[in-house]
Amino acid sequence: MATSSSAAAASQALAALAISSHGSPSSSHPGSLALPGRLGSLAGRSLRSSPASLRFLRRSQPAPSSAKAAPARASAVEALQAAATESLVDKSVNAIRFLSVDAVEKANSGHPGLPMGCAPMGHILYDEIMKYNPKNPFWFNRDRFVLSAGHGCMLHYALLHLAGYDSVKIEDLKEFRQWGSRTPGHPENFETPGIEVTTGPLGQGIANAVGLALAEKHLAARFNKPDNEIIDHYTYVVLGDGCQMEGISNEACSLAGHWGLGKLIAFYDDNHISIDGNTDIAFTEDVIARFEALGWHTIWVKSGNTGYDDIRAAIKEAKSVKDKPTLIKVTTTIGYGSPNKANSYSVHGSALGAKEVDATRQNLAWAHEPFHVPEDVKSHWSRHVPEGAALEAEWNAKFAEYEKKYKEDAAELKGIISGELPAGWEKALPTYTPESPADATRNLSQQCLNALAKVLPGLLGGSADLASSNMTLLKMFGNFQKDTPEERNIRFGVREHGMGAICNGIALHSPGLIPYCATFFVFTDYMRAAMRISALSEAGVIYVMTHDSIGLGEDGPTHQPIEHLVSFRAMPNILMLRPADGNETAGAYKVAVLNKKRPSVLALSRQKLAQLPGTSVEGVEKGGYIISDNSTGNKPDFILIGTGSELEIAAKAADELRKEGKTVRVVSFVSWELFDEQSDEYKESVLPAAVTARISIEAGSTLGWEKIVGSKGKAIGIDRFGASAPAGKIYKEFGITAENIIATAKSL
Amino acid sequence: MATSSSAAAASQALAALAISSHGSPSSSHPGSLALPGRLGSLAGRSLRSSPASLRFLRRSQPAPSSAKAAPARASAVEALQAAATESLVDKSVNAIRFLSVDAVEKANSGHPGLPMGCAPMGHILYDEIMKYNPKNPFWFNRDRFVLSAGHGCMLHYALLHLAGYDSVKIEDLKEFRQWGSRTPGHPENFETPGIEVTTGPLGQGIANAVGLALAEKHLAARFNKPDNEIIDHYTYVVLGDGCQMEGISNEACSLAGHWGLGKLIAFYDDNHISIDGNTDIAFTEDVIARFEALGWHTIWVKSGNTGYDDIRAAIKEAKSVKDKPTLIKVTTTIGYGSPNKANSYSVHGSALGAKEVDATRQNLAWAHEPFHVPEDVKSHWSRHVPEGAALEAEWNAKFAEYEKKYKEDAAELKGIISGELPAGWEKALPTYTPESPADATRNLSQQCLNALAKVLPGLLGGSADLASSNMTLLKMFGNFQKDTPEERNIRFGVREHGMGAICNGIALHSPGLIPYCATFFVFTDYMRAAMRISALSEAGVIYVMTHDSIGLGEDGPTHQPIEHLVSFRAMPNILMLRPADGNETAGAYKVAVLNKKRPSVLALSRQKLAQLPGTSVEGVEKGGYIISDNSTGNKPDFILIGTGSELEIAAKAADELRKEGKTVRVVSFVSWELFDEQSDEYKESVLPAAVTARISIEAGSTLGWEKIVGSKGKAIGIDRFGASAPAGKIYKEFGITAENIIATAKSL
């Protein structure tokens, strides 16, 4: 049959190359086919002539390359030495595969396919290429690794385990995906030291990696000296077909190409399988050509399952290209080694099952018990602990030299490394009085940003092509660009989702980096997945979201947020802040900067707002507070509660009601989350249980306000889409007015 | 100076080509430079030697093309005729420009830059290329036009006005961006007949256009006959740099290339300016090369400001390529004609100002009052009303032929055109009894989808690479693919955002098309912007969102929705449904299909759920209803309220409490929106005001539940991120249990 003879031919081609890949006798399994190592497994596969195995073999043929040609010219002795080394590499690669297989099997849940296919590139990265210190996962100058295809996290856990990270002991691998373990179902930086960012939602990781590489390029440009390149690391990322299909990855990679992030090296695990089957059913674009269009250097390693030297050569080439990021497309077989499930979607996201695990052990001649790492593999990897310590020590010495010579820079850099804020930084924030001119909070925000940029060396950021609308430019700095990476204004283009994820990468690069990013508040819808990862992964990004209501006017309902405030109030571990004027904007920034492990969303107005008496930074820190009150004994007739641009309206209504002899308290409710964290006593002092005549006003959904105003109160808001018209007209038509508050108060 | 001589050279080159572009004497403005028409304006520009004007001229040089060569070979008489025609074209193009300029000026708000640059392509499309009937904007076989760069909507309004649409009279143009007008700040299909979809949020429109073209290709493949191609239209779209940067456009365009949507023709308005300035600051990728990588045919028209023939030739070429969509990159000058603002960001999103409007009038020799359309232009365009009527009549005759010959197909197609559902369709929905086997609602959803596919000819859809997890395959159909477009399973790949927007396009193509799309519920975060447009634009997409809580287990917090239910409850005009079992899932589908102008989100479980006594389709239609009660007189001791997978837990707790002698009512709260729409009497019958001992249970954020349970009730839910562990363990650890309900009930 044509098919089986093709398979046999391919198998022969592989056999001819087997000198660098046969297994050692000690590793041959009693029940194996008595052919050595991987060669045996391939011969075993070639007996079956299914299309799947054909594809498997076709992909396994190493591409002719200079790296392959070299051993043929080497002496016989060198060849034997190389063979012995590669045999250990084979064992190490198989150890990674089986740690993954066994952990998924024990959990009866997880994704074995990617680790089995990507084990070679994983091994080469962590064993041969990357600089890191297992005993200090937070060493500043480490190479960063991101598994963008986060479902394959057992690959990363296995690598961290072999490398000697304390966070992933063998017992942690046995607790994969169990309650309270350090090996959750997707990589989570806040659970497992050694994991840089939180991935799983596809495309986020590659965008995070762009942020990490941006941070390196920026800091290197700011702090490196001709005689001391104190910052010098690579960012490696593995992404799969799924990541490639996501729009966020195109956004982030377009920027990476634009910025020329030469130290970003991405491995595209080209295994042609996604959950729905062969990627041909939905993904037939030319990825290499797309990345070239995006300004990347590209390399194709056709032999990702076995072509160690091709992978090594590709990394070498990638490093030689300094002005472009590199995409290494590595063609692999998902579930490599599994005789019946490799190259099929069934190995993507389910345990292999006991029978197939056995068959895979036979096929790859892996005679070991589950979770066993052979001594020679252990011994081989054990050097990373001392080597890592030496790397860090060497760098510390380099830093000491740096500190001697460049005292001020060193101090600034230390702050970025440690996250410690300069003493008294908050004094830089502007203050306002009721006599200060009325202004839009987006403008007041720019005053804060520019004031902070002078005192916070880690503050950098930008907008998704709305800098002049969001008012986010730092006037004392230029644009972060390919040739001016020391600057701090980042121009993201119209790429909200990529922007958010890039900022997550920046925030998680160094504790002292404080990235901010900006767009219209309604377009948080474009970047919500990245914002949720900020919240989950404790990345203290500051989201500067302007045009925060119908107050933006004529652009109309596509641009007017309605449900967005409540949607973020419901999201865990994120602060939703809606300041009403200058002092509250300053307070919001103070809160945002201090909350390094909790991102902040600042909703800011397009329109001018008055500077209100009674607002304060301290008030903002409490989330909700009284800005005016003419009652005594904590018993006002009415409590009017507003946020942001509507606080002014509440204050006006209070003035009118007071004229009519009522006692009225006005409460600014700038952040629900912060108010929730106050003592019951404080809460009672602001919103006494006995006062049920409460009216809230906010130009957004009323959902959730029942909690604040109670069943006898009334929430004035907008539970429909907005409209295109001048802002004042819409406010009036929608009843977001002092008149409506007064009428409502009288009806209570 | 080098710069000015270059400008002069470019100007001469343009003068040499002026035969086909000079203005007629009657249009020359008294105050103009006395050079004819556009040539005069160019000469005027060449006097200024700023870099901006240089760029303008460089871009204005027409590319050598065969289309340009043709007039040179024509006879003198033909050249004169052509010149006369082109002079009218010039006038028409300028009429479009000035209607836009004048409307923005009057509103003192809007985006004049794009209409001024894109007027030539707009003119050619609406005046020369497209098939439509102005007096019936909903004629089924019309060509569809989408302005993806929606901020330039005055271009579209001007074209609709000239073409004779009743929706855009001259008085509507004068009311641009005003309260209640039919010319809102961005194109809104629900406000303005003739607008196909709602755009503005960038990238949505191009993805909508992919959906429109998909719908055409699908319907043509299903209904066309060798002797009667009853469905045969193009989809045209204009997108800008902003759309190109957005990830959603790459997602949708990758699919368009994969599907070979040959009748999709996209004009990329390459004007090199976005809000933040020259696109060079953030966007230096090679767009043409990227689209080629995505499988598109590409053409570059370098003379978009003036090269009418180049544009015409490009469209002809695009139509000749049947198996690929075409991207026509049209290099234009934003704000073309404005002497001081063209080619700068200042003309993007603000009115020109009176002075610059005057200068632009001079520059383009436009002597007319604001909003004036010259009689010859009016007369030229007036043919579209009779021609459109004739086109539709012709098509109606063709349909009559079709109906005679292909009766059944015609009946089915009629349903798709009209949106009328087949009588008794809802009887196809499966029914369940408490004895039916427990099952995940995602599986029950698949039963509903497959049952409905048999009776609803317009039902089609798919998943973002999770078909086997979302359970969305229609078993009786194959995959919609390039060569099998008649099939109904759409494979979107891992492209949630593109998927949502494509479904909006499908839904808005024909009232009878019912698209559904699917992913994990948490990944609505990736597509939320498209879902909001579904809601706003009244596109009845069915969102099949599985794995709807911590109940998905081991995948962990990145995959577990928490805040998502409330986030959609707060979104206007969208139904959030969370069915608890088979009957409720059937009910949810009934509601979803009937709500053609309101999208539905179905939150479905990964895990098995019992079929509960008391659930019903009718109950779902009311949003909230009693599934069991052992009280009398509408006075139970407790009301337990659950949704989806937690309704079973509420029912169990009720059983226990009843054993202890309590009277307990269990309420299913499957859709808050539907319950809100019921009469006060009905609401009181379900949730009597007098009963305050209410407990809700839902595996999601408690935010908003105060409204239902009241200040004396208690909401059991999850106000933190989830965790990676087996589902049962997480439920227990998070207290989403019957035990917790019982303990809470006793504490009330």
From TrEMBL, chains A, B:
Its cofactor is Co(2+); thiamine diphosphate; Mg(2+). One of its GO terms (molecular function) is transketolase activity. The active site is at residue 496. Signal peptide: none annotated. One of its GO terms (cellular component) is cytosol. Keywords: Magnesium, Metal-binding, Thiamine pyrophosphate, Transferase. Substrate binds at residues 111, 348, 442, 469, 547, 555, 559, 606. Its EC number is 2.2.1.1. It holds the Pfam family Transketolase_C_1. Gene3D superfamilies: 3.40.50.920, 3.40.50.970. Homodimer. NCBIfam families: tktlase_bact. Belongs to the transketolase family. This is transketolase. It comes from Canna indica (Indian-shot). The lineage of its organism: Eukaryota, Viridiplantae, Streptophyta, Embryophyta, Tracheophyta.
